[in-house]
Amino acid sequence: MAAAREFVPRLLRRHDRASLEAAWYLLSPPLAVSVLSLLGAAALAWVGGSVWLLGTALGLVALLALDIVIALLSARVEARTWLALCAAPAYIAWKGWIQLRAAGRVLRARSDFPPTPRE
Asked: What is the pTM (predicted TM-score) of this model?
């Protein structure tokens, strides 16, 4: 979050493709957070009984998975890279925990300083 605040305005002022891509990378959530958000949405849709929303959320998760597979096939990665994907569920859970803690710190930092009395 701090890196995005610091670098995105400077990157956007440069007006070239590489800077725009770097700004987009800093502003977009990590893939693990996107997957975790979609899985959370799928769980809420399932609990709420919305088959359409459940299908949409799971379809988007499948689309992200397909994107990863296509990228790995295009890059012709080694077998050990494919095996590393077995750790993805644990990584996604860990990344979700880290993001929740970071969001909590940001929210707490805003509430640590009470408003200054005005005269």
From this structure: 0.59
Domain residue spans of the chain: 31-111
* Euclidean distance between CA atoms 12 and 6, whole angstroms: 11
CA distances from 117 to 74, 89, 90, 108, 114 (A): 60, 49, 47, 20, 9
Q: Is 85 helix (H, G, I), strand (E, B) or coil?
A: helix
List, in sequence order, the alpha helices (H) in the chain: 2-14, 17-27, 31-48, 51-75, 79-84, 88-111
Distance CA 17, CA 22 (A): 9
- Span 48-60, average pLDDT: 93
